[in-house]
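Reply to dn_fold:

You asked what the input looked like. This is it:
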Amino acid sequence: MSGVLRRLSAGGIVGLAILVFWVAMALFGSVVAPHEAGAIVDMEVFLPVSAQFPFGTDYLGRDMFSRVLHGTRYTVGVALIAALIASGSGLLLGMCAAVWGGWVDGIISRTLDTLISIPSKMFALVVVAAFGSSVPVLILMAGVIYTPGAYRIARSLAVTVNAQDFVTVARARGEGTLYLVREEILPNILGPVLADFGLRFVYIVLLLAGMSFLGLGVQPPNADWGSLVRENMAGLHEGAPAVLMPAFAIASLTIGVNLAIDVLSGGRRSGEAG
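and this is what came back:
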């Protein structure tokens, strides 16, 4: 780990710092926020940035800094859980398909190919229309949408490793499927899978932000960053920070995750090579 840290570039340090900051805010943002999420703190709306209000105020005179911090748990938390579901399910199914092959591979692959053929936003709109936009529904919806992509990556990697000589030798000496998956295949695909997990997380953040911007994501009185942009659109013509700051938060999170992906996947590959 220390070797990886010494090899970090400036971009990698920035990316990891941004990622750690937003994860910490997802956990403790409601504690460190100076005001309650719904508290009206000033009679003036769309106030500019100031020492008292670092992100200005929104269309009701609420502190946007507090609103963004409270919203982090929905933007980051929901996306993180959904990405874990998608990548975990894709990894498990991909390794099963690669190791067992045959009809198991065919059934799993054809089923997920059918799902991936449906446009993600259309699928999301249908699910929300049918079941509402509660947080559990949003998590499961996003997790299902991005499972096929994670499966394709995991299966492709696992098939390549499964064909290697060291796996053939392990199988010839009588090792079971669980051993092959745990000791031979998973360690050799974990780096790319972690990188893909980061991408799934970014995709889900953007999907959920888009749904919230349309009014179909996290519902009031709760709010994520996408809904914060939508509800303050009236201040766009005057450049109110209430519109810009949630958008900047989304941009900073996606940039930070992408920089962290490059560092973590690169660092793992270097460690394995050594």
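The radius of gyration is 22 Å.
Hope that clears it up.
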